[in-house]
């Protein structure tokens, strides 16, 4: 008997029944083993509850994937001085090849298969959401295919994970699905204004950041 048909035990029981298993004793033993394993996992991950909560807030991750990420990466990001080094270690950074003077993007090398599977699940889940990561997945999948989108979103997820685990006080804040559009519109407007000003003055225009206004 499973208390939650959509829980871990319930899903495994359904899979066993779909495969043809009908013996109630076998199904009951399967449920008991899964519940025992789940309890052991909860016990092992308890010291990292704060980190699980941090990662759980990221689009597409959720509690289970957060536990899987911690199991594969650990929580001490000191071993990866930068987010880029974590991404490179996980083999989620596209490799650039040069042929006849032309740069070409090659497939990523194979890394940890368990981590890759988790990141793939996160990317697909995020792709169904109306968020920054969801829009990133859809934009890249449309132009370059789903596999490229999985790698790109996995890259972004690892970068976010690094920043969160490197700073216990950090919280995830979604940039929103319109991030790319608003940024490109702002840059386009900036370029148009610079071009107009240069045409009017006949001078080269260079932008510099405005100094921060002192607090009153």
Question: Can you put this structure into words, describing what you see?
Answer:
There is one protein chain. The chain folds into two domains: about 1-45; about 55-205, no CATH class. Helices cover about 60% and strands about 5% of the residues. The chain has about 220 residues and is mainly α. The protein has helices at about 10-20, 25-45, 50-55, 60-75, 85-90, 115-125, 130-145, 145-165, 180-200, and strands spanning about 95-100, 100-105. The chain is elongated and about 85 Å long. It contains nine helices and two strands.
Could you state the order of secondary-structure elements as H and E? HHHHHEEHHHH
Spatial order of the strands in the main sheet? 1-2
Q: What quaternary form is this?
A: single chain
Number of domains: 2
Compute the number of helices.
Answer: 9
Q: Which structural class fits the helix and strand makeup?
A: mainly alpha
Q: What percent strand? A: under 5%
Give the averaged pLDDT, no decimals.
80
Terminal CA distance reads: 66 Å
Radius of gyration: 23 Å
- The biggest beta sheet, please? 2 strands, antiparallel
The unreliable regions are 1-6
What general form does the structure show? elongated
